[in-house]
C-alpha cells in the first residue's frame, strides 16, 4: 500500500549525512552501470495568462542496490523573464508546489510512496555537492564563501559543513542585503560564524571553498578573482529553455579539473556554458570528469594548493530521488500515522499478453 511522505517527514527523519551517503551510492552505482537515469526532460508551455507559463521538469531513475525506482514529476506555474534585471529568470508566483515524487518497488513495479519534493529537491542537490566536497576538498579547509541566501544556500551550508567540520566561517553574499542579514540570523551550525558581505569579492578572497547556490542566470562573481588552491561549486545550469551562466567562462578555463554529474545531460540539455568551451578547445574534454567515477574509485581528484578545481553540479538525475527516497521510505514506512493509498486505486488492468 502506497504511503504519503511529506516535506516535514524529510526534515524530521532524513539527516543530511544520510542523504550524502545515498548520493554517493547512487552516483557510484551509475558509474558502474548498476543504476539507471536518463537526462531530465523539461518543457515550457503557454497558458491563458501571458504572464504565467507552465513548466514541467521530469526525472526518472532506478538504483537496484537500494531496491528503488522513481519518477519525479515537476509541475509548476512560473513567471518567466530571461532578461530579468535581477538575473533570476524563473520565479514561482504561487504558494504551492504541485510536483510529486513517485517511488516504485523495483521487484514488483508497484508504487509504494508519493512524496512531496520541495524540501528533498534542495537537499539532494546540496547532498551531492557535499559528497563531492568529501571526496575532493582538503580536510583542513576553514572558510566557505557562499553566494545566495535561499533554500539551496541553506542546504549547501549544512551539507558542506557536515563533511568538513573544520569550517569555522561562512562569508555570505547576496545582492539583497536584507536576505543576507536574515540568513545569518536564522542559520545556525555549531562552531560556524556566518558573516554577511557587502561586496561579492569578500566571498571569494581567502575562501577555501566558494559555492554559488543561486537562481541567477548571470555570473555572480568575476572568475579572475580566483586563486590557486580554491574549490568552486555552482548549481545553476542551462537547458533548452533558458541559458544560464552562474559562473563565468574564466572559472571553467582556470580549473585544472571540472567535475560534473553527467556528460550525457550536458549534451542533451544543451548546457552551452560548458559545451561551447569544450567544442572550441578552450577547455580540454579530458579535464571534465563525472563524479560517479570518483565515488567508484575509477578516478582520483584532490584539492591542491597549486590548482583550482571546479564542480559544476550540472543536472538533477532520477537516481538522486530514487536513492534519497529509499532512505526516507525505509525510515517512515512502519510509522502508525502514515496516510495510505489503497492499491486498488492505482492498479489498472494488466496489459494484454497477446501479439496484437
Write the layout of secondary structure elements.
Layout: E1 2-5, H1 7-13, H2 16-31, E2 41-46, E3 53-63, E4 68-80, E5 90-91, E6 100-105, E7 111-115, H3 118-136, E8 143-147, H4 151-163, E9 169-173, H5 177-186, E10 193-196, E11 209-212, E12 231-234, H6 249-254, E13 257-260, H7 263-268, H8 272-279, E14 288-290, H9 291-295, E15 309-312, H10 318-332, E16 340-341
Parallel strand pairs: 1-7, 8-9, 8-11, 9-10, 11-12, 12-15, 13-14, 13-15
Antiparallel strand pairs: 1-16, 2-3, 3-4, 4-5, 4-6, 6-7
What are the low-pLDDT stretches, counting only 5+ consecutive residues below 50? none
Helix share bin: 25-40%
How many individual domains? 2
At the fourth level of CATH, the homologous superfamily of the largest domain is NAD(P)-binding Rossmann-like Domain
Structural class: alpha/beta
Q: Tell me, what is the CATH class of the largest domain?
A: Alpha Beta
Roughly what is the average pLDDT, rounded to an integer?
A: 94
Shape label: globular
Tally of separate helices: 10
Strand content: 15-25%
The number of distinct β-strands equals 16
Order of helices and strands: EHHEEEEEEHEHEHEEEHEHHEHEHE
Largest sheet: 8 strands, mixed
CATH topology of the largest domain: Rossmann fold
Tell me the Rg in angstroms: 20 Å
Polypeptide structure, described:
The protein is α/β, with parallel strands linked by helices. It folds into 2 domains: 2-120 and 317-338, 2-Layer Sandwich (ornithine cyclodeaminase, domain 1); 137-312, NAD(P)-binding Rossmann-like Domain (Rossmann fold, 3-Layer(aba) Sandwich), CATH 3.40.50. Helix content is 29%, strand content 23%. The chain has 10 helices and 16 strands. The chain has helices at residues 7-13, 16-31, 118-136, 151-163, 177-186, 249-254, 263-268, 272-279, 291-295, 318-332, and strands at residues 2-5, 41-46, 53-63, 68-80, 90-91, 100-105, 111-115, 143-147, 169-173, 193-196, 209-212, 231-234, 257-260, 288-290, 309-312, 340-341. The strands form 2 sheets. Strands 1, 2, 3, 4, 5, 6, 7 and 16 form an 8-stranded mixed sheet that branches. An 8-stranded parallel sheet has the order 10-9-8-11-12-15-13-14. Helix 4 links the parallel strand 8 and strand 9 (169-173). Helix 2 (16-31) packs across helix 3 (118-136), helix 2 packs across helix 10 (318-332) and helix 3 (118-136) packs parallel to helix 4. It starts with a strand and ends in a 15-residue tail after the last strand. 44% of the residues are buried.
